[in-house]
Amino acid sequence: MTVLVDTSVWSLLFRKNGPAQLPEVEALIRFLGGEAQVAITGIIAQELFYGLASSKASDTIAQTFGSLLYFSPTLDDHIAAAKLQRKLRNAGVLVSSEDALITQLAIAYDLTLLTTDRDFVHAAQHTPLRLWIAGSTP
């Protein structure tokens, strides 16, 4: 299984007071240890780096990200994300452009999304998005 890790989980892992004690963070630590292949994309990295307060954390995260599988969206991915965002809006689910792109990449590249963001739970009810659920195995 390849897991696309959302900003919400990365930020909980790299908190200045230490990682949060949540199933998603514990799963990410296991996945980084080799239990699953971990993936990122540019918008997730951008969101995470934007929220960082220290350059020390930035260096640690950059080093971690350098060893992960990286998905770069194509123009087709952006177009499909806009269509997906419109489909979700018509179903009464509002997601940001960033979250629509993350959802599109996870679907297009057959990735499981690891997140604590409830917007993705709502999106998964209307799309083939696969979410990692606490208690599941890779």
Can you offer a commentary on this structure?
This protein has one domain: 5'-nuclease (Rossmann fold). 54% of the residues lie in helices and 12% in strands. It contains seven helices and five strands, in the order βααβααβααβαβ. It has a five-stranded parallel beta sheet. The chain is globular, with a radius of gyration of 15 Å. The model has no long low-confidence stretch (mean pLDDT 93).
Number of domains: 1
| Distance between the amino and carboxyl termini | 6 Å
CATH fold label: Rossmann fold
Report strand order across the widest sheet: 3-2-1-4-5
* Structure classification: alpha/beta
Shape: globular
From the alpha carbons, calculate the radius of gyration and give it in angstroms.
15 Å
Oligomer: single chain
Low-confidence stretches: none
Mean pLDDT: 93
- Main CATH class: Alpha Beta
Q: So, the CATH homologous superfamily?
A: 5'-nuclease
Jot down its keywords.
single chain, 138 residues, alpha/beta, Rossmann fold, 5-stranded parallel sheet, 7 helices, 12% strand
A few lines on this structure:
This protein has 7 helices and 5 strands. With 138 residues, the protein is of the alpha/beta class. It has a single domain (2-131), classed as 5'-nuclease (Rossmann fold), CATH 3.40.50.
What is the topology?
Elements: E1 2-5, H1 7-13, H2 23-35, E2 37-41, H3 42-50, H4 55-65, E3 69-71, H5 75-90, H6 97-108, E4 112-114, H7 118-124, E5 130-131
Parallel strand pairs: 1-2, 1-4, 2-3, 4-5
